[in-house]
Design goal:
Elements (H helix, E strand, L loop, with lengths): L1 E5 L5 H14 L6 H13 L4 E7 L2 E13 L4 E11 L8 H15 L5 E3 L6 H9 L15
Helix pairs in contact: 1-2
InterPro entries: Acyl_CoA_acyltransferase, Bact_Acetyltransf, GNAT_dom
Protein name: Ribosomal protein S18 acetylase RimI
GO cellular component, one term: ribosome
Length: 146
């Protein structure tokens, strides 16, 4: 049975392996040490909330949320920046459980909404989000490389 829970510093080693695989999936260089340090810093500084999916005492997936704010609504919101399931554990329902954990966290923190972005060609993820109540918007986002 898959459970979800907040990640702790005790999860860093196994979580870093998945986080590194996630980054490689998005065409980034393999950097396990960098992945570990990045996650360690986020947890220590309480700059993100990470939920993990655990099956048979093994972390098989995670989602990472970053706090943002809505000036118009005067409320907190969350950016669901990362969601990844170990390829060997896909189709077991872990992604849906992680989305539910993120939703509950948003509700529990009195947030206005959750926001996520995915690649245009990531159709399986888009289908999962729609199935779980997420609505695709027509907003136009711009980025500025620094």
């Amino acid at each position: 049975m898959i459970i979800t829970r907040k990640a702790t510093s005790e999860d860093l080693e196994s979580l870093s392996i998945l986080f590194n695989a996630y980054r490689v999936f998005y065409n980034q260089a393999d950097d396990l040490k960098g992945a570990f340090e990045f996650l360690k810093e986020r947890l220590l500084q309480q700059e993100s909330v990470i939920f993990v999916a655990v099956n048979n005492n093994k972390i098989i997936g995670f989602t990472q949320l970053y706090p943002i704010f809505s000036s118009v609504s005067l409320k907190k919101a969350w950016l669901l920046n990362d969601l990844f399931i170990d390829p060997s554990a896909r189709r077991l329902g872990a992604a849906e459980l992680l989305l539910n954990a993120a939703r509950k966290h948003g509700i529990d923190t009195g947030s206005k909404w959750l926001l996520l972005e995915t690649a245009l060609d990531n159709i399986p993820a888009q289908n999962l989000y729609v199935k779980n109540g997420w609505v695709r918007t027509e907003d136009i986002f711009y980025t500025l490389a620094l």
